[in-house]
Design a protein that fits this description.
With 134 residues, the chain is an alpha+beta fold. The protein has two domains: 30 residues; 92 residues, no CATH class. The termini are far apart.
Length: 134
Amino acid sequence: MTKKNLDDSAQAVTEMMNNPKNYQAFMQDFLGNQRTNTAFNMDLFGNAHNQTLPEHCFLRLNSNDCSTLSQGYFIANGIKVNIDEISMKFLTILVNKHIIPLTEMLSLFNTNEQESINKLVWQLGELDIIEIIR
């Protein structure tokens, strides 16, 4: 290989690395491969007759990186979830608190939003994006 070919190759690699789309694709792939070890909540999600959250439980996020929240999506344990405004508020609170009682989380939302939050907690718990601790 000539010096010109090496220079051209180095320039091409530099351009690829500096491309924001390539960086985003890399980060999504990287974050998608990161896992946090949590036990599946068999008592809660293994019971087909149960569709309600325990009254006194704590919520914790199963992710080491929350940098994608501001971009409208979240990646945890290999799952990418697009988030709406209420989910953004919920996840931002969880990121800042690290662990929070469900009752306290619900108190931060108005009455009309609380049912949506309960459903969101259930869905994110099933996907192992959040941990529901009794």
